């Protein structure tokens, strides 16, 4: 089992920045990949970014490329999502998610474990 706990959400003005954190526990951190997804009001949940433990390979949704950066601190079993140049359309509940094994992923069906989510609101 893997437990994921998100933090760092909040209210920010358009153009601002936020950093989300996802603390993982349970299985060995190197045995799975961690990423982020989001769900805006009235919309389906969508993939945002993911990072593989082996080699630190990353994958991003087109909508966040160049603005968001995913990283991980293996010593702290924590994955971060640095969000810059935020837009009102980035408003959503952001979920941390992990796969069952360590590989580069980019679809929601790849996620095996989910956190509870943290709200990000970007005002215009």
Radius of gyration, whole Å: 13 Å
Gross morphology: globular
Largest sheet: 7 strands, mixed
The tally of beta strands, per DSSP, is 11
Question: In terms of topology, how is this protein built?
Answer:
Blueprint: E1 2-7, E2 10-13, E3 18-26, E4 34-39, E5 46-51, E6 58-60, E7 68-73, E8 78-83, E9 92-98, E10 113-114, E11 118-123
Parallel strand pairs: 2-11
Antiparallel strand pairs: 1-3, 3-8, 4-5, 4-9, 5-6, 7-8, 9-10, 9-11
Report what the structure shows.
The protein has 124 residues and is an all-beta fold. It is 0% helix and 49% strand. It is built from no helices and 11 strands. It has strands spanning 2-7, 10-13, 18-26, 34-39, 46-51, 58-60, 68-73, 78-83, 92-98, 113-114, 118-123. The strands form 2 sheets. Strands 2, 4, 5, 6, 9, 10 and 11 form a 7-stranded mixed beta sheet that branches. β4 (34-39) and β5 form a beta hairpin. The radius of gyration is 13 Å and the shape is globular. The N and C termini lie far apart (40 Å).
Brief overview, please?
Helices cover 0% and strands 49% of the residues. With 124 residues, the protein is mainly β.
List the keywords:
124 residues, 49% strand, mainly beta, four-stranded antiparallel β-sheet, 0% helix, seven-stranded mixed β-sheet
